[in-house]
Amino acid sequence: MPHPAIALPRLMAHRGLSAHAPENTLAAVRAAFEAGCTWVELDVQLLGDATPVIWHDATVRRCSDGRARLADLDWPRARRLDAGSWFGDRYRGEPMATLREMLELLDELGMGLNLELKVTRGRNAAALVDSVVPTLLDALPPERLILSSFHDGALARARELAPPSRLALGVLFEGISRDWRSRCEVVDAYSVHADWKRLSRRGARAVCEAGYRLLCYTANDPTAFAHQWAWGVESVISDDPACFAGHLPDA
Ligand code: G3P
Ligand code: MG
């Protein structure tokens, strides 16, 4: 089945512009936009009350002034957290963002979204997917959306909810594993997202020859990354996309 006609950007801002603003916040997405990025990678999870929020870790310890596990928080408590001060005083009071708030901002800015379904230990993947996918489909056109995950069950559930023409799915890998092809085929994947440090030329070639788009995370050293472009990588997810200026291959 055909996939959406996505114009993949060379660079996506990882967790928003996370080198310069608190990751996964509205401020980080605004910063990415201001830096000229057209797409962002963000992470999504459910709070304990089933509110989908943009957040990476299983707890709020590292990136806020709180300590709780996401599973133990409801939105009235989560919204009072300061998710900005840990990064810098100028971001004091920056809140955690709900998925809905983030989608409104992306719509306003006309940006694309590579949304990573984060299924942390002990959490229910189907509940996350069933909440997130309908909201995404309402908010963004297929050309500006990739839903990605390391979690095969989450991707399979997402594929049950939307066909390839409506929802591009990205399968996340550390290294390209032996079972990479079956992981992709079973969900009719659009793309493979690999850890750039573990990507081999051979793995990259196999993925590209099979017709999957190849993305790499999280590269912040354009010199070290230079030869991977020639292997067929189309898009790099970076904390600081501007560092690639002058290091990109011709389109
Ligand atoms: O989407 C790829 C990348 O974000 C996966 O790693 O831990 O930064 O979410 P992580
Ligand atoms: Mg991520």
Keywords:
single chain; 20% strand; eight-stranded parallel beta barrel; TIM Barrel; 251 residues; 27% helix; binds magnesium ion; globular; alpha/beta; binds SN-glycerol-3-phosphate
Spatial sequence of strands, sheet with the most strands: 1-2-5-6-7-8-9-10
Q: What is the distance, rounded to the nearest whole angstrom, between the alpha carbons of the first and last residues? A: 26 Å
Q: Could you name the CATH class? A: Alpha Beta
The number of distinct β-strands equals 10
| Count, helices | 8
Give the name of the CATH superfamily: Phosphatidylinositol (PI) phosphodiesterase
Structural class: alpha/beta
Write the CATH fold name. Answer: TIM Barrel
Rg over C-alpha atoms, rounded to the nearest angstrom: 17 Å
Strand fraction band?
A: 15-25%
Shape: globular
Structure in words:
With 251 residues, this protein is of the alpha/beta class. It has a single domain, classed as TIM Barrel (Alpha-Beta Barrel). Helices cover 27% and strands 20% of the residues. It is built from eight helices and ten strands. An eight-stranded parallel beta barrel has the order 1-2-5-6-7-8-9-10, surrounded by four helices. Strand 5, helix 4 (125-139) and strand 6 (145-149) form a beta-alpha-beta unit. The longest helix is centred in the middle third of the chain and has 15 residues, at 125-139. The radius of gyration is 17 Å and the shape is globular. The two termini are 26 Å apart. The mean pLDDT is 97. The protein binds SN-glycerol-3-phosphate and magnesium ion. SN-glycerol-3-phosphate binds next to strand 2. Residues 41, 43, 116 line the site of magnesium ion (MG).
